[in-house]
Design a protein that fits this description.
single chain; seven-stranded parallel beta sheet; alpha/beta; globular
Length: 256
C-alpha cells in the first residue's frame, strides 16, 4: 500500500459498518480519506477516533439521492485536496419490499444503490481523467446480486439493485479499458455482513465482519497497477440459504 500513502480516497456510507471500517484501514495505511455520509455525529466521532493515525480523515455530509449534493462534495474534494485517487462506493440501503411493494422504497433503493454510486463514479472518473491519475474504483455489491433470492420476496427489489450494480461495475471497467484510461475497477460482493442494514434480517445466520470487507479492499488496492482484480465474492464459511428457504416453504404450508 506504499504507493497510496498521501493519496486521496473517497468512501461513501462512511458513518458505520463497512464504510467506517474501510476509512479506518485506509487512514492506517497513510491515505487521506474523505467520508461521505448523512449522519454528521457519526462522522465527527470517526474523525476524533482517527486523529493521530498515519493518514488523515475528512468528511462531507452527502445524500446519495441528490445529484447536486454529490457533485458539490466532489468539487470540495478536488478544490481542497487536489485529487481523487480512489473511490469506494459502499453506501447502500435495504427496505423490506417485494416486487409488488412500496414504490417509495423501490426508488430509495435504486437511487442509493444504483444511481448514486454511478454518479459518484462519473465524478471521480472526470477528476482522474483530467489529472491523469492511476485511479481505482471499488463498488461494494452483494452476493445476492449474482443469483435470484428464491422465496425471499422481501429481498427481491434489493437484489435487483445489486444485479444492476454488478452489471454497471463490469460495464464501467470495460469502458475505461476501451478508452485506455489507467483506472482499475473492482466489484466486491459480500454475503451477510454484521452491519446496521442487516440487523434482525437473518438471525442466527453465519456472518462476516465489516473489517473482512475492508481487508479485501486493501488487497485489491495493493496489487500492481497492471493487475485488476475485477471481481471478489466473499461469503461466511458454511453460508447457506436452505434454512431460510425451509422457513419460506413452511409459511406456505409446503413440506421440504
Amino acid at each position: 500500500m506504499d504507493k497510496w500513502v498521501g493519496k486521496v480516497a473517497v468512501v461513501t456510507g462512511a458513518s458505520s459498518g463497512i464504510g467506517a471500517a474501510t476509512c479506518r484501514q485506509l487512514v492506517d495505511c497513510g491515505m487521506i480519506v474523505v467520508g461521505f455520509a448523512r449522519r454528521e455525529d457519526k462522522l465527527k466521532d470517526l474523525r476524533k477516533e482517527l486523529i493521530g493515525k498515519p493518514g488523515e480523515f475528512h468528511y462531507q455530509i452527502v445524500d446519495l439521492c441528490s445529484e447536486q449534493n454529490i457533485k458539490e462534495a466532489f468539487a470540495w474534494v478536488k478544490r481542497t485536496l487536489k485529487s481523487v485517487d480512489v473511490l469506494v462506493n459502499n453506501a447502500g440501503v435495504w427496505k423490506n419490499s417485494d416486487v409488488l411493494g412500496n414504490l417509495h422504497d423501490w426508488k430509495l433503493m435504486f437511487d442509493t444503490n444504483v444511481l448514486g454510486p454511478s454518479i459518484c463514479s462519473k465524478e471521480a472518473v472526470n477528476i482522474m481523467k483530467e489529472l491523469k491519475i492511476n485511479g481505482h474504483i471499488v463498488n461494494i455489491n452483494s452476493d445476492i446480486g449474482h443469483y435470484p433470492p428464491t422465496l425471499m420476496a422481501n429481498m427481491s427489489v434489493y437484489s435487483a439493485t445489486k444485479f444492476s450494480s454488478v452489471s454497471i461495475t463490469e460495464s464501467l471497467r470495460e469502458l475505461l479499458a476501451l478508452h485506455m484510461l489507467p483506472i482499475r475497477v473492482t466489484s466486491i460482493s459480500p454475503g451477510l455482513v454484521d452491519t446496521e442494514m442487516v440487523e434482525d434480517v437473518m438471525p442466527g445466520a453465519p456472518i462476516l465482519k465489516p473489517s473482512n470487507i475492508a481487508d479485501a479492499i486493501v488487497y485489491v488496492l495493493a496489487t500492481p497497477q497492471y493487475v485488476n482484480v475485477s471481481e471478489i465474492l466473499i461469503r461466511p464459511t458454511s453460508e447457506t440459504m436452505l434454512p431460510f428457504i425451509k422457513d419460506a416453504f413452511q409459511e406456505l404450508n409446503i413440506n421440504l
